[in-house]
Write a sequence for this structure.
């Protein structure tokens, strides 16, 4: 069929194929770039969520440590009603701050779990910590209310209660950081594999384009020589 075309038709066919391959490569490149941009947006959003959750868990730990310190301030310095009420108010503020960061961390984890079910384990652990915190805060607050200047008695009533919760919050934070780091390493490996696949696909596409163009050009040139060596009517 190609040999039956006129000289002008053969060059038009060669140009059309070359233009078609160029347009196809351009569209392919635009699609690949769009996919990469969307993937990068997803990764940035995921990173922001990870950082926010880590920050909230860390803030939970700080708030609880401040609660414990404020309780000790009551035992040591809360000998009069004014100071006791001051420390008691600050204790309640930190208790509420703990719960605020707990809610924020919980919401962040639930969003992450929508696309990564592995985060569900952290959701349940966070809920457990919240319940334990409420129980411990109630015990501390009860002793603050019952404090009447006896430092030793008040300190003994809550001695060691904070250690387990503090350790669990720290472990949750450390485990979450490790989990995120491991997942990030896995994504780096997958990203490298994806890049290699895309690169190989581009190389194959370029080679096929070059081979097809070379084949058509060779065929066209050969056909032109045949026409030039034929009757004038064939060359027209």
């Amino acid at each position: 069929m190609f040999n039956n075309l006129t000289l002008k038709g053969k060059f038009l066919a060669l140009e059309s194929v070359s233009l078609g391959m160029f347009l196809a490569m351009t569209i392919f490149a635009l699609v690949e770039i769009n996919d990469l941009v969307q993937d990068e947006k997803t990764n940035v959003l995921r990173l922001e969520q990870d950082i926010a959750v880590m920050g909230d868990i860390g803030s939970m730990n700080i708030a609880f440590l401040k609660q414990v310190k404020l309780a000790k301030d009551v035992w040591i310095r809360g000998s009069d009603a004014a100071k006791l009420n001051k420390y008691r108010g600050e204790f309640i503020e930190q208790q509420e701050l703990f719960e605020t960061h707990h809610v924020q961390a919980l919401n962040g984890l639930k969003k992450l779990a929508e696309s990564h079910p592995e985060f569900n384990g952290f959701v349940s652990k966070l809920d457990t910590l919240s319940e334990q915190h409420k129980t411990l805060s109630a015990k501390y607050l009860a002793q603050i209310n019952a404090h009447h200047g006896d430092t030793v008695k008040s300190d003994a009533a809550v001695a060691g209660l904070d250690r387990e919760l503090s350790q669990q919050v720290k472990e949750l934070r450390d485990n979450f950081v490790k989990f995120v780091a491991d997942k990030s390493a896995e994504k780096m490996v997958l990203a490298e594999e994806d890049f290699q696949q895309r690169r190989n696909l581009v190389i194959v596409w370029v080679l096929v384009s070059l081979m097809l163009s070379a084949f058509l050009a060779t065929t066209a040139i050969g056909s032109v020589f045949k026409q030039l060596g034929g009757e004038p009517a064939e060359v027209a």
Residues 2-235 form one domain. The longest helix spans residues 7-77. Residues 231-236 have pLDDT under 50 and may be disordered. The chain is about 90% helix and 0% strand.
